[in-house]
Amino acid sequence: MDREISTRALLDTLADTGNGEVLTLGGLLDQFRTRAYGVFMLIALLPAFVPLPVGAGGISGPLVALIGLQLLARMSHPWVPGFIARRPISREGLARFRDRASRLLRWLERLSRPRTEGVIDHPLAKAFTGLLLLALGILLALPVPGTNYPFGLILLAFSIALVERDGRLMLVAWALGIVEIALVAAFSGQLAGWVAGLFD
User: pTM of the prediction?
Assistant: First the structure.
């Protein structure tokens, strides 16, 4: 059963209720069908916003790239490997994510609503969204310090646009994503040198 729900209300529901029910990614994707890609993105972004010792981007990045590939392939519903679909999701982690991003979420939700939905649903628009997410996911996965939050904030805009079905916000997310990719490309020489230094 799909449900109409805002991003913050979704996080509140998932983080604060449960009655002992085990929360899994596969169950969430089945529950929120038309918004499944946005929900998937929210869960994928958790490591980028919740402090981890190392490798947050290495967890979030491949999942974001997987979402991008599936949108490029015009899949109507996201697919995840069984071992990921069955893995329990921490309600405490969802609550920390909600609390850390609460001011941004409140601001975005005041602006977001279903509109210009062709930018969400049109096959070419979906493909372009997928291409940007594939590129951003790969870049997020690179072990570059200080990039989790900039990439995470841009990807959060993609996620909210998908959940809220807000085509105008998606256009903003496209613009931010292109700028971020261009900046990384502009400094790719320094970036390549830094990554190479890790293996010296």
Answer: 0.81
- Sign of the torsion angle spanned by Cα atoms 13, 14, 18, 24: positive
Phi-psi region of 29 (alpha: psi -120 to 50; beta: other; left: phi over 0): alpha
Residues 162/147/189/135 CA torsion (nearest 10 deg): -20
pLDDT digits (tens, 9 = 90+) for 152-200: 889 989 998 998 899 999 999 999 999 999 888 887 766 666 556 655 5
**Tokens 């015009």 -> residue:** 74
Tell me the two tokens of residue 93.
């982690």
Q: Which two tokens stand for residue 124?
A: 């070419």
Question: Cα–Cα distance between 91 and 108 in angstroms, integer?
Answer: 22
Q: Residue ranges per domain, the chain? A: 7-198
Write the CB contacts of 143 (distance below 8 Å, at least 6 apart in sequence).
55, 57, 58, 195, 198
